[in-house]
Amino acid sequence: MIFHAALPLAALPMQWIMWNLPLLVAALIVLACLVLYGGKDLIRLSPLRVRAVASVCFHESIRRRVLWLTPLAILGVVLVSQFQHPLDEQDSVRQATRFCVFTAGLLVVVATIILACTNLPREIENRVIYTIVTKPISRLEILIGKVVGFSSVAALILIIMGVFSWGYLKVQEWRLIEGIKQQISVGGLDAATAQTLKYYRDHGLLNARDYRGALDVQAFSAYPAPGDKLRWFNGGNEQQVLVPFQVDPGSVQIGDGDAAMLLAISLPWVQQRALTPDELQSVTQMVESARSQGMLPAPLTVPGIAAAPEQFPAFVRVEFYGPDMARIPEEARAHKVVPVMDATGRTAVIVPVSASYAQKILSTGAFYVSLLGASPGVRYGVGDPPVSLLFPSNDPQKPTVVKSRQFNSTEGASCMIIGRSGQNGQQLRGDEAATAPVGVFAFRKRALPSTGTMTVEIRSVVDEQGVVRRNDFALDTHMPTVVELSVVNRQTGNASTWVRVPLESRRTAYAELPAEYLAGGNFDVLVRCLTPGQWLGLNPATLRLSAGDGSFALNLFKSYLVLWLLSVLVIMVAILCSTFLSWPIAVVLTVVILLGHWGVMQLGEMATPGVGRQVVNDLFAGAAPAVTETLTRSMESLTSLTRNMAAFLPDISRFAAMDDLSLGSEMPWGRLAAPLIILVLFGLQIVALSYVFFRNKEVAP
Amino acid sequence: MNVQDYAVHTQGLTKVYKDFWGRDKVRALDNLDLSINRGEVFGLLGPNGSGKSTTIKLLLGLIFPSGGSAEVLGQAAGSTVINERIGFLPEESYLYKFLNGEEILRFYGRLFRIPRKELNRRVPELLDIVGLDDKARKRKLREYSKGMARRIGLAQALINNPDLILLDEPTTGLDPIGTREMKDLIISLKQQGKTVLLCSHLLADVQDVCDRIIILFRGQTVQKPAPVSDLLQVRDIAQIQTRGLNPQQIEDIKAHLVHMGVNDANVTHPTTTLEDLFLRVVRENSPKQ
Ligand SMILES: Nc1ncnc2c1ncn2[C@@H]1O[C@H](COP(=O)(O)OP(=O)(O)O)[C@@H](O)[C@H]1O
Ligand SMILES: [Mg+2]
Fold it and tell me: Which pTM does this prediction carry?
């Protein structure tokens, strides 16, 4: 859904109209159909008549035994939960919760689609409608009555399913907690398991916590204290810096040939330690390769005599990422590993980019330059943005310089430093305390109680040298990873002592941090891994603070409320379809309308602009230019048509009933806003359209 | 007379049913001109498939005309507001089968926004009028016999004490006593000053209760609206009815008539004259073989 009400209308009227087109169309439909065409019926609208139709609808559905589906669904839930493979007790309960909500959602949607799609066609077919439309009830009242009636059926189904789910989950929790108590009393558990199990025993398994997540997570070779000028990251392909750019392709002049756009890189660096023979060999290779490409001037060593490590330049690998953080594919000569000669960073390294690749990069609008520290044993310092772009200008002596833009999440930092990306987010290497790199979770403007302790949940996938460990209990429990946490207040600069947490891959661990450092709401939580040879997967959701524990029952209720809102939308769409179609086709169209938006979103890149040319290039490589041009254009218009159509369909992925429940976090009431807006926006126009169709329908078979 | 004063007024009312592709399929009603006065019992007569039900559906706005216009109680046909004053008994009782007699009447009552108190009084009263006993009222409609369904259908048509009542084949499915009761009811409605439009293929129904009739055949008006008494008026035919004549006596009477100068005396067993009329107009309008 597109809704940009805040935009100044006068400034960009055309753009405003385009952005809000679905909203405007909805308003227009409602105005034309309901207010102008159906104004009289709108004024006559009587709750009494609506209720009469609704109650008959409701009773009919009950008599059609829809409620008999609920015990079947419940049986399904119970059966399927026997076959789950939980990681631990917490996961077991969460899986069961997800399953309950999913089943209830599926049941209510299927039941309402069938009920609502068949209702009107059946009443016309068996002519019951004769005695209804000949009463002083308007078609609008009939439609609204039916929506209300079926919505009550949906509510009843969901209430039954909800009460069952709650009871079932409570029993499951009790059963699991009993098991946990026994495990603890028997003993013989490793530290990580014991700590987690005790936490479950004391806090229960069904929670609705008020979690506070981090704004972002970065990884450094050492934590940059608030006053530090340089932020350091490790080489050895361990960490990288991301520099964001936003360039309007029309505002710069792209040259041609191999140096159409230039990168100017200035990055100070320090050789930390002597290299191992393996590392030495890899550095030598980089040197050779750079020299063969003409990037290093003269041999630095006398042939036959091994070079001293400090004589090597540091290398960085230069890559470009698109707005979605996916690498922008390069045609020929792949990623460049570039030597940085000047360890003070004062002299810039110039890296040329070919015309075709520059075109590709700039066409994304917003992109990132990534510099990955390639040299082992080196750390690189980031102060000012380390990269600028240079474009040719009319004065050959003075190229156009484009500076990087700001990352808005990192407090004015113009670039982010992250761990290398693995399958499970950034990777943080385990090492001894003195040299271990740190992951930094930034919390900003998070007002939290600052007395006592604060519970931190951390859940990560632990890698061994970039290989994801098998999801195997035995392996994990024998080798718990040692992780330490600390909290730093950004205002005072004070840091807590490190708190040690035994961690298992894919299992949540719990730690208590002193809350005094949270005062003011701006703080960093630092994490480091002290088990050498293991890598911690980090993303902003890896670590969460829990500010309080809400009611699980209320949380469940909110989820079912979202499902109910969804089912009301389903009912409206189903009734709309049934006003002009036979019921089997109405069922199909209902599903298409409901899944349309989501489906087009799933197509993802396949529906983005520019895909036409790509497809045509792939399929019709040899065709005449005129032909490919036509094909490209028709492909483009087809995809844009699909995309634009999708904008007018409701986005059911916004009815997020499961997200919070399956994380055990408290669902804020605000989460209901998106479904409500969609329901009102689409519901009103759907009812308006149904009304027009139904009023112009001959209700004889 | 002003158009507004008619209970029903149609001009050139035509209905052509179309098939899926929009091509003409059946011309079910052609150019019907009809004016029914208030307080009149009007009969719409015709064999099966002659367009009677089509006419009623058009008057109620269940289907839309292909041509011409129809007004009911001074408003365009199908207006929701005017339904307040209309009662309709469809050809068959199409009602919610999962409700019982009382529930269904209450449901229809609520569509008229009749207050609960008023319904508490009127529902049993109506069930009495249409002759459904206490046991029947509590039974689901799906268990009703055809006659019982007909009765509950009639009750729902009268729930709002309508001014204009449209009855489509009111006596089908009723036993002879039920038929008699139905006719009595129609007469009593007339006495209350209500307008009744009834359509039927049963002549006896029409003859007994209607003030005026129209005869339709294959959508065409084959007999313009006229008072029943006019249509049945005996012209120069005298009919003598008696009982227990033996053939000899009949011969004697014939001879006597010849003696009186009447040569073409025709002795038959009597039929209703409306039936005569009906069969005649139908025969006249049938395509010649
Ligand atoms: N929905 C329909 N579609 C096509 N033809 C119809 C439809 N309803 C009625 N007809 C045709 O219209 C003609 C008149 O039907 P109807 O008015 O029901 O007759 P009756 O006088 O028996 O009530 C018949 O030939 C019938 O077959
Ligand atoms: Mg009929």
Answer: 0.78
